[in-house]
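Internal QA ticket QA-208
Title: Verify multi-chain structure generation after dependency bump
Assignee: T.L.

Test input:
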Amino acid sequence: KAGVTQTPRYLIKTRGQQVTLSCSPISGHRSVSWYQQTPGQGLQFLFEYFSETQRNKGNFPGRFSGRQFSNSRSEMNVSTLELGDSALYLCASSLAGTGPGYTFGSGTRLTVV
Amino acid sequence: AQRVTQPEKLLSVFKGAPVELKCNYSYSGSPELFWYVQYSRQRLQLLLRHISRESIKGFTADLNKGETSFHLKKPFAQEEDSAMYYCALSYNQGGKLIFGQGTELSVKP
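Actual output:
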């Protein structure tokens, strides 16, 4: 079966712009989580969606937002980009998000210049 | 606050030697602990969950609630084990994983 698909793989944006990243979970998976990975801070949880509802949120500013559609696909949006937002953004999906065996995507590498 | 600590950034061993990657956590309740692995140029993948108590690729990990540890062990390291290893904790429903900083394992021939 197809894995978790994230698009685009690479993205370069300018400070102040906004960006939207997409994640298609494994078919049948209803929970989608997003993580930011940087060399300094490691892997940090952004938020989790289950059945189109945000169920959990990490400690990120309101510039980071997300949503989930009825087909479980998810998007995350970052507005007013800052240099520090440069990171690898990972998406992970699971059946229900409980006791996760989460499957991760390959990530979107965002560079803010 | 919940936290996962992996004290070693880099662990280098020779092929055939035993390996132990350390993981300590702070959480007062009953967490779920995981080990994830990321091989070079590959995506992050689940290696072990403490509740399944299984051995994957020769790796085992035992949850020690008294010492709040979940160390990953393998008796005989192989070169193909070289990768980044992340310990992670989940403490509620809602898909939130708290990751340690990761340990890079390098197995030399």
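Spot checks passed. The first strand of chain B starts at residue 3 and ends at 5.
Status: verified.
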